[in-house]
């Protein structure tokens, strides 16, 4: 059975105060130094139906409504049918995890924004279960790529040097200890946080635990408190160190301050995004834009934007903007290009 069917089955089943301050970066948007690849700027989104990589440009991120993406990229190298993760590396290469193919695709050729079929410059294939239904991607500070394998319960690392050409390299690290690793994100200290879609947990691996392969229970495990974690998928950190988790099953997004994540337990989120006037469309992917606004991709094809002001405090908040993509569903991963600065390693 395809990954999308498994996840959507779970979704359907479950469907029946932060220290923000005035020192947040303001003024003109500042981007990182120029990169090698030449992808068009905007918000990139993975779509399972149709299987493609879609982009919304800057103008499309300003208004509500139903939109046709400015760019649609397809490929014959993978089906892209299921819920595909996406991340940009420091050189601007766009990496996509294809669960149905158990492959990693690196698109380095770039795109001027024209919709077309594009072939990856690099394809990483599995060897001995190294890639098995990949659900999440995250780059560490060394430029190495970490991948969560939902099918066999492993988290693997491919060194930067292993990502320069196609092949089936043996991961430099293979970590076990979480049953269903899904979303991945590094915090500002370089520790790795992992969601478990089915056990409803978020776990933390310390940097020292990631230095060698092995069966390693996470240092910290956060579990659900009154449905605070229900089918958690995407995960992201804002510039203040707060952790945001997309609850695909509950149609909410929970946020936890650093002190709430200092030890294992079931903390009550300092805020939970559960709008009363709009649906998040089964939220899956999370990304912060350069101004600190939170963007949420819903499996049903909905993109929601919450302003930094609205998510600063506890309590419900309504999105300031919602976009629905024309004839597009099974959204999973989202990422801004160029990568905004001032945020942890997501």
Residue-averaged pLDDT: 88
The largest sheet is: 5 strands, mixed
* Helix/strand/pairing category: mainly beta
CATH-assigned homologous superfamily: TolB, C-terminal domain
Give me the CATH architecture, please: 6 Propeller
CATH fold-level label: Neuraminidase
SSE pattern, N- to C-terminal? HEEEEEEEEEEEEEEEEEEEEEEEEEEE
Q: Approximately what portion of the residues adopt beta-strand conformation?
A: 35-45%
CATH class: Mainly Beta
Sheet with most strands: strand arrangement = 8-4-2-1-27
Helix content: under 10%
**Into how many domains do the coordinates divide?**
1
Extract low-pLDDT stretches.
10-35
Termini separation: 29 Å
Outline type = globular
Total count of strands:
27
Total helical elements: 1
- Rg (C-alpha, Å): 18 Å
Properties at a glance:
five-stranded mixed β-sheet; 4% helix
């Amino acid at each position: 059975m395809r990954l999308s069917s498994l996840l959507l089955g779970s979704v359907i089943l479950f469907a029946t105060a932060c220290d923000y301050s005035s020192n947040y970066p303001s003024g003109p948007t500042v981007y990182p130094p120029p990169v090698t690849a030449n992808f068009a700027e905007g918000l990139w989104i993975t779509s399972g139906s149709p299987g493609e990589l879609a982009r919304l440009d800057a103008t499309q991120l300003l208004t509500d409504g139903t939109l046709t993406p400015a760019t649609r990229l397809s490929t014959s190298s993978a089906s892209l049918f299921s819920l595909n993760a996406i991340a940009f590396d420091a050189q601007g290469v766009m990496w996509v995890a294809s669960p149905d193919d158990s492959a990693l695709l690196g698109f380095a050729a770039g795109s001027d924004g024209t919709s077309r079929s594009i072939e990856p410059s690099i394809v990483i294939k599995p060897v001995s279960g190294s890639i098995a239904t990949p659900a999440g991607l995250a780059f560490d500070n060394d430029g190495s790529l970490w991948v969560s394998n939902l099918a066999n319960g492993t988290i693997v690392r491919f060194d930067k040097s292993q990502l320069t050409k196609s092949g089936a390299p043996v991961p430099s690290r293979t970590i076990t200890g979480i049953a269903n690793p899904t979303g991945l994100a590094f915090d500002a200290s370089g520790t790795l946080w992992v969601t478990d879609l089915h056990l409803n947990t978020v776990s933390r691996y310390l940097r020292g635990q990631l230095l060698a392969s092995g069966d390693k229970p996470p240092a910290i495990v956060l579990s659900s408190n009154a449905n605070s974690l229900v089918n958690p998928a995407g995960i992201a950190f804002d510039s203040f160190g707060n952790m945001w988790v997309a609850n695909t099953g509950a149609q909410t997004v929970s946020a936890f301050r650093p002190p709430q994540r200092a030890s294992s337990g079931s903390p009550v989120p300092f805020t939970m995004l559960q709008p009363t006037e709009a649906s998040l469309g089964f939220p899956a992917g999370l990304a912060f834009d350069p101004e600190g606004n939170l963007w949420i991709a819903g499996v049903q094809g909905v993109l929601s934007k919450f302003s930094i002001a609205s998510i600063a405090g506890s309590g419900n908040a309504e999105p300031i903007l919602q976009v629905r993509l024309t004839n597009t569903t099974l959204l999973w991963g989202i990422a801004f290009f160029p990568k905004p600065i001032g945020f942890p390693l997501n």
